[in-house]
Design goal:
The chain is of the alpha+beta class. It has two domains: 84 residues, no CATH class; 86 residues, no CATH class. The chain is built from seven helices and six strands. A four-stranded mixed sheet has the order 1-4-3-2, with helices on one face. A two-stranded antiparallel sheet has the order 5-6. A hairpin with a 4-residue loop joins strand 5 and strand 6. Helix 3 packs across helix 6.
């Protein structure tokens, strides 16, 4: 993970060397990772080479976790994307901030378990439509047209294992555009969205920016923007 982080750090450098850039810190962004993924990842980030140097919040629900590599001198900053938006599902986040092209696909989660996964996933035929029935919801989660789309997708792979890997990778892939769109949105208001750790922090930053640069916001009174070169401290006497 830190080998990849090293490459990312170098590729993220600005072409203009005068722009400040901290090459030592690389963001690792997840969705609901503070409640789930981190429990499986963070325990393995403690060794002779690695150390958890900072935790913002409780470890089982942290807004930010910093893990440093003592040899490469790189810091992985684990943040949870769910803290940057109002309460919503993953599908809603992708729909609200994406461009409509992001699709994860479908997989019958109840069709496999710890006992049968090898036998089931090595098969080369698509899952039957009945496999998508949800015992929790009491319905089949795919209508006929959706199932046909799944069959078309699965047939592009050698077996169910390969499709399953693709399906899991889509969790990451379909987050890229929505996150990038949010970063661009806040950049319009001179805010580095990823620098903060929550939607509340970004909202507070936007409030202060609106005071100094009202022209960036629509519907605000036509007050002049703050001029950093003006002398606002001339004595009135």
């Amino acid at each position: 993970m830190f080998t990849i982080a090293d490459r990312i750090a170098e590729s993220n450098r600005y072409e203009d060397e005068n722009i400040p850039y901290n090459a030592k810190v690389v963001n690792a962004i997840g969705w609901n990772s503070s409640n789930f993924d981190n429990a499986f990842i963070i325990p393995y980030q403690i060794s002779e080479e690695l150390a958890v140097t900072s935790v913002l919040g409780k470890l089982n629900h942290a807004k930010q976790i910093m893990v440093s590599h003592n040899i490469k001198h790189i810091i992985l900053r684990f943040v949870d994307r769910i803290h940057y938006v109002f309460p919503q599902t993953f599908d809603s986040f992708v729909k609200d901030f994406g461009d409509g092209s992001e699709e994860k696909g479908a997989f019958p989660h109840e069709a496999i378990n710890s006992s049968n996964y090898e036998e089931v996933l090595t098969q080369t035929t698509p899952f039957p439509h009945t496999a998508f029935h949800s015992s929790l919801k009491g319905i089949n989660t795919l209508i006929e047209t959706q199932y046909n789309e799944y069959v078309d997708d699965e047939q592009k792979f050698n077996n169910r294992w390969d499709y399953f890997k693709y399906y899991n990778e889509q969790d990451t892939v379909i987050m890229i555009k929505p996150i990038r769109n949010q970063i661009i949105l806040f950049a319009r208001f001179k805010i580095d969205m990823i620098h903060s750790v929550s939607a509340a922090s970004n909202a507070a930053a936007a409030k202060f920016v609106s005071c100094y640069f009202p022209s960036l916001f629509t519907g605000y009174p036509p007050y002049p923007d703050f001029d950093i070169h003006a002398d606002y401290f001339i004595s009135k006497y």
